[in-house]
Specification:
Layout lengths: L1 H16 L1 H6 L2 H5 L7 H7 L23 H4 L19 H14 L12 E3 L2 H12 L5 E5 L5 H8 L4 E5 L10 H9 L5 E7 L11 H16 L3 E7 L16 H5 L6 E8 H4 L8 E6 L5 H18 L5 H12 L3 H25 L7 E3 L7 E6 L5 H12 L4 E3 L2 E5 L8 H15 L3
Parallel strand pairs: 2-3, 2-4, 4-5, 5-6
Antiparallel strand pairs: 1-7, 6-7, 8-9, 9-11, 10-11
Helix pairs in contact: 1-13, 7-13, 9-10, 16-17
């Protein structure tokens, strides 16, 4: 009963501060809590004691961390504390730095109260936690039809939710604003859950400024109808926008203060933003109009409860490394170098497609302007999977076949090799067409 009481206390805070946020929570989300008097909480209260016999780590006789010297010599982090556990919600210093960086990268958020990010075990885990908090069996989640295949596992297999898809693009190659609106409005007012990912994986598309504002306006209109809305914002490739006129902030900036009935949930991390894929450090941040410290603290505790239940905590070593990186004087300059590398490859793809009009006989590019990827759609009658297999067999080139498209990761393809990729795809299509 004590555990149930802790969940109820958090729920009461949420209802008192924003009933719409409570309405979008799943049953598991409503039941979630971080144990006030659990082992981690008791250890925290004893951390300044002369003798601390609380937490289950090994210390040397001088109370330094009992790390293996062969591991310790591989890191220059001071004090070996990075080998210890992190709190379930993450290192406070890193969370505060990441929040500052979110506002710095998204200046529209200046002055808007948002939660303190909670550290997760990479971005996928952040999305998984958000799904657990929001989705019950049979709930519907709205997505464009071109989406990262892992969403089916993360969103549906783990919750038994149903994906409602709308065509990503119109016939004239624009983002399908009308399709999004129709899908959002379809079942009348009620609980609405969406997941939007920009730059989009697999297509590499980010909305224009006008399109992004229209997405916000559609959701505000639906909120005004009485719907309680949660929008999971997958910002995996945030910051990698290569064209003018494209919305360069996170959609979180437009939604975090849009309406009292719209809960924006930003899922991001160091994975792609800081070229640190294997560190597996992500973050989950909340924003809602009128959000305050009490509301956000209750939501953060629920997230921490899920993390405690699932993995206990994310890697402290990874979090410690990131703190050092973000304080390094060359961090921004080094990051810009990597951005320019990806932009160079993006521009090379654009050039190759523009100068080889013969490609249109067999395939055309879907709209793309950002991120790691671009996709090509093959002409009717050409099997994308057969093209993929022939590319490997005959040209030793690997691409991804997804939803009948071919996805090319220019992020991992040296610039000079990009023309070879498209020429080889053309040759495969020609061969399979019997020409």
């Amino acid at each position: 009963m004590g555990f149930d009481l802790q969940a109820r206390e958090l729920n009461d805070v949420i209802v008192e501060n924003n009933p719409a946020v409570y309405r979008v929570l799943s049953n598991r989300g409503k039941e979630a809590y971080f144990p006030k008097n659990g082992i981690l909480a008791q250890a925290e209260s004893a951390k300044n004691c002369k003798i601390d016999a609380t937490i289950g780590i090994a210390l040397e006789e001088d109370k330094t961390t009992a790390a293996l010297p062969c591991l310790a010599k591989l890191t220059q982090l001071e004090g070996l504390t990075a080998f210890q556990y992190a709190p379930s919600s993450g290192l406070k210093e890193l969370r505060e730095i990441w929040k500052e960086m979110i506002v710095e990268k998204n200046p529209s958020l200046k002055g808007i109260p948002i939660s303190l990010p909670v550290a997760t075990s990479a971005l996928t885990h952040a999305i998984y936690v958000a799904a657990q908090m929001l989705l019950d069996t049979g709930n519907r989640i709205i997505l464009p039809d071109y989406f990262w295949e892992n969403y089916e596992l993360v969103l549906c297999h783990s919750t038994d939710a149903i994906i409602d898809k709308f065509p990503t693009f119109t016939n004239d190659g624009k983002y399908n604003i009308a399709g999004l609106k129709s899908t959002v409005n379809h079942f009348g007012a009620g609980k609405k859950i969406l997941l939007l990912n920009f730059p989009n994986n697999p297509t590499g598309y980010t909305p224009t400024i006008e399109e992004a504002e229209k997405i916000r306006d559609i959701l505000i209109e639906e909120a005004e109808r009485g719907s309680s809305i949660a929008v999971i914002i997958d910002d995996a490739y945030f910051g990698l926008v290569f064209e003018d006129g494209i919305y360069k902030e996170s959609l979180f900036s437009l939604l975090a203060n849009a309406h009292e009935n719209i809960l924006a949930i930003k899922c991001d991390g160091a994975t792609k933003e800081d070229y640190a894929w294997g560190l597996r450090t992500g973050f989950l941040t909340f924003g809602v109009k009128g959000g305050n410290k009490n509301l956000y603290n209750a939501l953060e505790q629920k997230v921490a409860g899920f993390i405690r239940e699932q993995i206990s905590s994310a890697s402290k070593m990874s979090q410690s490394l990131l703190i050092r990186a973000y304080k390094h004087p060359s961090y921004n300059a080094e990051k810009q170098v990597k951005f320019e590398l990806l932009k160079k490859r993006y521009e090379k793809v654009k050039e190759v497609l523009a100068t080889n009009q013969n490609y249109k006989e067999y395939f055309s590019a879907l709209p793309f302007n950002s991120g790691y990827f671009m996709c090509i759609k093959l002409k009717d009658g050409i099997d994308a999977e057969k093209v993929r297999e022939l590319l490997i067999e005959k040209y030793s080139i690997g691409v991804i076949q997804i939803q009948g498209l071919l996805r090319i990761a220019f992020s991992s393809t040296p610039t000079e090799e990009l023309p070879v990729v498209f020429d080889s795809i053309f040759n495969c299509c020609k061969e399979l067409s019997g020409k």
